[in-house]
């Protein structure tokens, strides 16, 4: 792992500056090692007329390719809502709240549900 990190710093430093390579490593550590949320996640506002069923939202907004994949990921525990695993494929988002959804390790989105 140490050698991989050093290699990544070297390659990033060749194409960018060494300081930017260190910044990129810090962001990587924060998101993947410490399991934090990225700063630049997509925010989607869900209107009143939209069904707030989690599987449908994941499919409609491109986080999964199909409803079947969404149900499979939810049942396997690969979907987190506000940093809590969701295992119910019929999970719905409540109106008037904000949710940060994480699908797998790298897909994040923030849903804002209007009243």
Structural write-up:
By secondary structure, this protein is of the alpha+beta class. It folds into two domains: 2-33, no CATH class; 42-113, RNA-binding S4 domain (Structural Genomics Hypothetical 15.5 Kd Protein In mrcA-pckA Intergenic Region, Chain A, Roll). The protein has helices at residues 2-15, 18-33, 54-60, 67-75; strands spanning 42-46, 79-81, 84-85, 98-103, 107-113. The protein has a five-stranded mixed beta sheet with strand order 1-5-4-2-3, with no helix packed on it. The longest helix has 16 residues, at 18-33. 12% of the residues are buried.
Mind sketching the topology for me?
Elements: H1 2-15, H2 18-33, E1 42-46, H3 54-60, H4 67-75, E2 79-81, E3 84-85, E4 98-103, E5 107-113
Parallel strand pairs: 1-5
Antiparallel strand pairs: 2-3, 2-4, 4-5
